[in-house]
């Protein structure tokens, strides 16, 4: 059998469970009431009507009469007793304030008060992140979090257009606000854009000038073009400095490095550009044959479009119907689309659906 104090400790631990916290605060009636089992005394404790048992019953009588929540009682018959005895069975907590009062945990009360003040002024699409990741908001005032979420709702891929982060004044924020709260803003943008801000880096995602530059991985695919097998160059350096190859292969992600062929004549690959593509407007690239290889999703197509705005004759590599059809059975849903036109999203969905149907038909044909 458990005392109110013992169950209070359990309730405080439950608050620290992000899954439980999210369900109970955001999913409403489905999770309430919280039912905490109290348990029964064993036969030995009952037979002696020990002081511990008397105190146990008195403690739960006090909760039953004064709250928080409700105590469910049940009659239980023991051999040592002449008649059934009323004993506390469950503690029922009907709402978040009951949970808070029952747990009697100072940190929990502080975090709950913070959430109660801020959530009403935050876009619902960000509620889940704010409720789950309380460490992100530790040390912030409610006003700072509310401002950060408003800024995050106004930021979009490439919106900086080559300007530094300090030049982005969107919701009354000061010039250093985005830099001070970069980790929080990146997490908020990840929630909106399916992790793209972290995957690309905040500066590249927003298309902002990085104070310490955006570094690109440069890899020659033929011997004799560069003195090193790989090196890093600042994107701004590529605007003014030509690379000694006729063919330039631009690749969205650095992870593709190990999939490149070791020998391609007169070709240099530039990896990890992400959304930072302004350097493709460099005059020397007009005399080169430029190709682009990115993810075959709306983000990859969005970046391909931005690259083509700098190099109109750019050629896409493995970003066509044949490639999509060949790998459609391994495709996964894209939760958040890049800010491209509706028609592009419609085309991708249609291609995915038709390719999936063909793959299913082929599988059925083989099995029959």
TrEMBL record:
Domain Wadjet protein JetD C-terminal: 209-342
Domain DUF3322, chain residue ranges per copy: 4-190
Domain of life the protein comes from: Bacteria
Pfam families named among the record's database cross-references: DUF3322, JetD_C
UniProt-recorded name of the protein: DUF3322 and DUF2220 domain-containing protein
Protein source organism: Diaphorobacter aerolatus
Phylogenetic lineage: Bacteria, Pseudomonadati, Pseudomonadota, Betaproteobacteria, Burkholderiales
